[in-house]
Every structure is written in C-alpha cells, then in structure tokens.
Design goal:
Elements lengths: L1 H8 L2 H6 L6 H31 L2 E6 L6 E3 L2 E6 L5 H12 L8 H12 L7 H4 L12 H8 L6 E4 L8 E6 L2 E6 L22 E3 L6 E7 L3 E6 L11 E4 L3 E14 L8 H4 L1 E2 L13 H17 L16 H9 L6 H4 L4 E2 L2 E13 L15 E9 L4 E6 L3 H15 L4 H52 L4 H5 L9
Parallel strand pairs: 11-15, 11-16, 12-13
Antiparallel strand pairs: 1-16, 2-7, 3-6, 3-9, 4-8, 5-6, 8-15, 9-10, 11-14
Helix pairs in contact: 1-13, 3-12
C-alpha cells in the first residue's frame, strides 16, 4: 500500500522504503531521510503559524499626502469657576430649605463648591463632608447639572456651513464642555450607535486653512486638546486660558490609519481595537474610555460605589462617605499602574507646535467697559502633515496556507494535490483491505456453520438407530422369510 501511495504522490523515497529488493541498510537510510524531512516541514510550518498568530501586521509610512482629509482636534473646556451663584441659591433653598440669611448657608455653599470642583485626582475637600448624614442621599451628578454654569461661548471655524458640536460631559476633571468631540457622547451613559455619531469637523490638507476659534465671555478655564475619537484624559496638551487672553496654537498631527483587512484578524493578533468594536464592556471603544472604565470598576470593587465622574459605568453613585473610602484606599493612584487597555487601530495624535499668546488687559477708566465685558479667545490650527502611518496585514491566512505548501514542497517534495492523491490511495486500499477481511470472516463463519450442521446431521441417524434396536424376543415373533426361486 505504501509503495502505491508513494508512486501516486510522486515521492520516490516512500517506494524505496518498502521495496524489499533493496538492502535493509539502504531502506533504513531512506526512512531516516523521509522522517527528517517531515519533521523539518512540521517545524517550519509551526513557526509560520506562530508568526500568523503573533505578528501578522505591519506599520508602514504613507507619503501620498495631497489627497488626504483630516479631522481637526477636539477641545475639552473645564471652567475654573463652575458654579452659577443664582442656581446654587435655588438648589440650597429647594433641597435643604436654607436661605442666605441662615447661618448654615455658607456651609452648604462650601459643599456645593467641593462637589463641582472635585476631580478624580483631588476630591479631599468633598470627603470632609462624609460625617454629615444630610448629604448621604444627594445625587451629586444631578447637583452638578443644576448648579453648573451654562456654555455661553461662540464657536466659529473655516467652514461656515459646518456646525461644530458642543456638549456638556462629565470627565475625570469634573463637569466640562467638549467641542468637536463625538466620542465624548459616550460619557453621558446613554446608548449610542457608532455609525450614528456626529462626525468631527474635517478639512482637506493643502487646500484649506484648517482652524476652529472659540470666543469666551466672562469665562476662564483649562483647555485640553485631544483626538476627536478619544475623551479628555491626559495632560499632554493643556492650555490655561485667563481673562483677556488671546491664544493661537498650531498643532502637528500624526495619524494612523488601518486597512479593512485587519477586521479579519482577532484582537490578539492585530493588538488593537477598532472604535466600532464591542470590547471591555464598551459598545464603542477608545483607549481613554477603557482606562477610565477600569478605574471606575476598581472604585466599585473597593468601596461599592462609582464616582460621579463615570456616568457610563453602572453602579450606585458615591456619596461623601464613599469618597472618604476612596481616599483611604488612595484611589486612583495605584489603579493607574494596573489598568491596561489595547490601543485603537486608528489613532490621531496632536502635538503642540507653536503657541502665540497675547493679553489685551483691562483698563481702569470709567469709559471702558468693566471686566464683565472682557473676552478671551482660543484658536487652534492644524498643520498639514506630510506623512502618516498605515497599519496593514503583512501575513494573512492565505499567506499561511501558501507557506505550508512551500514547506511541504521543499522538504518532502509533495504538493497538496499529491497529499490528496496519497490520502485517496491509502483510504482506497484500506477500504479494500477491510472489505477483504470482512469477506474472509464471513466465509470462515459460513464454513464453520456448514461443518457444524454436517456434524449434527451425521450424529442424528446413529442416535435414532440406537433407539430402534430389536430384542431377541421380538425377533422370534417375526414371520419366516419366504424364498422365491
């Protein structure tokens, strides 16, 4: 059978191994050669399979920049003074029935300031109210929404027909306003479909001057410039904006795009996640969202509550006593080193290149308007890039199959068609052998039954005659024979 299979597959060595006309030593040498070749082919195929599992992607440089379109950076604005005094008076009156003439009024006002100014890295002032049971049932997120200052700024851009999206979001810096940041919609905790998210303002590099301008009236705060597909989380591009400041910042962009072929690979293979993929219990993924959720889950495990910075994470909200518990655990300092999340397959990184800052100042004469009319502005421009990174598949499943065939052809000298022929010959001959064995067994069983039946028939007459023997007395009574001549 092996000789026929070797001849069908074109592998002469197999035919030589089973050829009994050759010397035993020669057949043994051919056997060692064949086994060594098979082992080498298996080892090489294993290395290729390991490469397919661990590093099938490559990041290359793309320089065809003339037709690129890019997204402008998002900005998250967090006011220095969050609280609206008129709304704060109403809230204290409605919830605790305390007016400005009561002696406890400023105590409650201090509590409101502690809540609206709390951040994930600094909430010690809020933890001081942990012993007061009057604050245990207060919804801190609802409190912030009711007393927070509204967004009363003017947004303009190079595209007069595009309305830049602005929304209030709850970040780890507290209540802020996200501008040109569709990913920040996830922070609200409402169900959102990625395909239905509002798109950020984009422009064609090289043909337009890409910028967004924000004019603030009687407002100062901190600006965080980040990718529109991430949320405010880092301190990389922080800009402080004070009254009468006019700031123009230019940002250099490094974009990483991804090929659609990456969808065919698993997350472990490509080592990145697309924004529209569901992972880490997030319907819409970004690395900053994943890290924020990890810190929120750790707070939930430690103190059985979720800080109000994470409205997109389910769980009971933390009251001042809960924040005191988190303070005892030194959250989230140690959580920063534990939370690990994969990067997104498409990334946009902005680096501040130039900053021009000028201050108008406020004059002290009566003819000039007071500080209530003082304005500040922030304009962010995008420097057209000349290069970008492309993440693509360099070793696909088809390449893996081809490598298997190459290893077999190089070491064993057989193709996939040869393997099929060999398998067909072996399977066909095995069926013939099994059929022959079944027929032989059937023939032997039938012969055994025939012999057994013949033996039984041969023993039956003798037994019968032994019972029919006549005695001498019976013989005497028989009539005499008549002889006929």
């Amino acid at each position: 059978m092996a000789e026929i299979a070797g001849a069908e597959a074109g592998v002469l060595a197999i035919s030589l191994i089973v050829n009994k006309q050759l010397h035993t030593l020669e057949r043994s040498i051919w056997l060692v050669v064949v086994l060594s070749s098979i082992y080498a082919a298996i080892m090489l195929s294993g290395l290729q399979y390991e490469r397919y599992l661990n590093s099938p992607t490559v990041i290359s440089v793309d320089r065809d920049y003339r037709g690129w379109n890019g997204s402008l950076p998002a900005v998250t604005l967090c006011y220095y003074d969050h609280i609206d005094s008129f709304k704060a008076n109403e809230y204290i009156q409605d919830v605790w029935n305390v007016s400005i003439i009561d002696e406890d009024y400023f105590y409650f006002m201090d509590f409101l300031y502690a809540v609206v100014n709390a951040t994930a890295s600094n909430y010690a002032e809020l933890a001081k109210f942990a012993e007061d049971e009057r604050f245990d049932q207060v919804d801190l997120y609802e409190l912030i929404q009711r007393v927070d200052r509204p967004f009363e700024q003017v947004i303009s851009s190079f595209d007069a027909n595009f309305k830049v999206h602005v929304q209030m979001v709850m970040t780890e810096r507290g209540s802020c306003y996200a501008i040109n940041s569709p990913m920040s919609s996830v922070l609200s905790g409402k169900p959102i479909v990625y395909e239905e998210m509002e798109q950020p303002l984009s422009c064609q590099y090289g043909k337009q001057q890409c910028y967004i301008r924000m004019d603030l009236y009687e407002s100062t705060g901190v600006l965080d410039v980040h990718s529109p597909y991430e949320v405010s989380a880092t301190e990389a591009n922080i800009v402080a904006l004070h009254k009468s400041d006019e700031i123009t910042a230019s940002f250099k962009v490094l974009e990483t795009v991804a090929s659609k072929n990456l969808y065919e690979l698993s997350v472990a293979q490509r080592k990145c996640v697309f924004n529209n993929e569901e992972t880490s219990n997030l319907k819409i993924y970004s690395k900053s969202l994943c890290l924020a959720r990890c810190r929120a889950v750790m707070a939930l495990e430690m103190c059985n509550c979720v800080p109000f910075f994470y409205q997109f994470v389910e769980g009971p909200g933390c009251n001042p006593a809960g924040f005191e518990c988190l303070l005892d655990f030194k959250w989230p300092i140690w959580a920063l080193h534990i939370c690990k999340c994969p990067s997104t397959c498409t990334e946009i990184e902005y680096t501040m290149q130039t900053v021009k800052k000028s201050s108008w100042g406020v004059k002290n004469n009566d003819e000039v308007a007071s500080s209530e009319t003082a304005t500040s502005s922030f304009r962010w421009d995008l420097i057209p890039p000349k290069v970008r990174m492309r993440r693509d598949v360099v070793y696909s499943f088809e390449d893996l199959i081809v490598s298997f065939g190459g290893a077999l052809a190089f070491f064993v000298g057989v193709s996939v068609l040869g393997l099929v022929e060999m398998g067909h010959v072996l399977f066909h001959n095995m069926l013939l052998d099994i059929s022959t064995l079944i027929r032989w067994v059937y023939t032997q069983a039938r012969r055994h039954r025939v012999i057994h039946r013949e033996v039984a028939e041969a023993s039956t007459p003798r037994h019968r005659h032994s019972h029919q023997r006549l005695s001498l007395a019976d013989t005497a009574e028989l009539p005499p024979f008549d002889y006929v001549n």
